[in-house]
Amino acid sequence: MRRCLILACVMALLPSFARADEVFLKGGGKVSGRILSRTDSSIVVDVGAGTVTFPMTAVDRIEERRTILDDYYERAEKLGARDRDGWLQLAQWASGQGLAAQARAAYGRVVAVDPAHAEANRGLGRVELNGRWVTEEESYAARGYVRFEGEWMRPADRDSILAYRAAVEQAEWARLDAERRARDAEARAIAAEARAREAEARARDAGAVLVAPTIPFWWRSWAPAPRPWWEEPSARPAPPGGRPRPRPEERPASRPPNR
């Protein structure tokens, strides 16, 4: 699966060749281009936008044919190092055929002969700054721009972005901190309420223990009330010189009078 995905990406970048060497892979699909080298372990194919290397263990078969890359290299071999116009025409032709790497190489030959050539410099991605051709990076840097997250911008714009992000981050931190404080306060309130309930329960239990022994036993409905102390036999004082006076219920029944 991974090999198929890599092959699909490679095929999407390839120029459309009328005729080309074709390398068929065992996993399916093929690669068209110009074979630059081939060994027992690997094969290198020039696809116009660059080179691709495959292990021979992944190659099913190879069909070698003539490609536009062959045309490019044949035309390049016929040009002299100082042939500015010839290299310019070859660069234009290669660019039209989708051979980006070869077009840049040809434009580089033109600039080597004529450093101020506008079309060749633009073909190399350069820009004119104060009468000289420089790279895009050199142009932006010379004008005081900085590269930030893949884009060129002024330092003030970059600082504004960073300040805004810092403010957002600070606000988010403050929000999270406030939520944390609120949760902590709620937890403390719940704990304090639980402690208060526990203390109240303990106070009730302690009050019951203290009050219970002072409750008279005879108050309970299931226990008879005790006699007053003055009604107890041991508590009645004895009359002088005699036995204690019996209680009414202890007196003998009265005898009938003698007749």
**What is the mean pLDDT?**
79
- For the record, the CATH class of the largest domain is Mainly Beta
The number of distinct helices, counting runs of at least 4 residues, comes to: 7
Radius of gyration: 56 Å
CATH topology of the largest domain: SH3 type barrels
User: How many domains, as an integer?
Assistant: 3
Coarse shape: elongated
Main β-sheet, in a few words? 5 strands, antiparallel
Residue share in helices? 40-55%
Report the structural category. alpha+beta
SSE topology string? HEEEEEHHHHEEHEEH
The low-pLDDT segments are: 1-18
Give short descriptive properties of this protein:
disordered N terminus; alpha+beta; SH3 type barrels; elongated; 259 residues; Serine Threonine Protein Phosphatase 5, Tetratricopeptide repeat; 17% strand; 46% helix; five-stranded antiparallel sheet; 3 domains; two-stranded antiparallel ribbon
What do these coordinates show?
With 259 residues, this protein is of the alpha+beta class. The protein folds into three domains: 2-67, Roll (SH3 type barrels); 79-143, Serine Threonine Protein Phosphatase 5, Tetratricopeptide repeat (Alpha Horseshoe); 149-207. 46% of the residues lie in helices and 17% in strands. It has seven helices and nine strands, in the order αβββββααααββαββα. The strands form three sheets. Strands 4-3-2-1-5 form a five-stranded antiparallel β-sheet. The longest helix has 57 residues, at 155-211. Mean pLDDT is 79; it is low at 1-18.
Topology summary:
Layout: H1 2-13, E1 21-25, E2 30-38, E3 42-46, E4 51-55, E5 59-63, H2 68-77, H3 84-96, H4 100-113, H5 118-123, E6 126-129, E7 132-135, H6 136-142, E8 146-148, E9 151-153, H7 155-211
Helix pairs in contact: 3-4
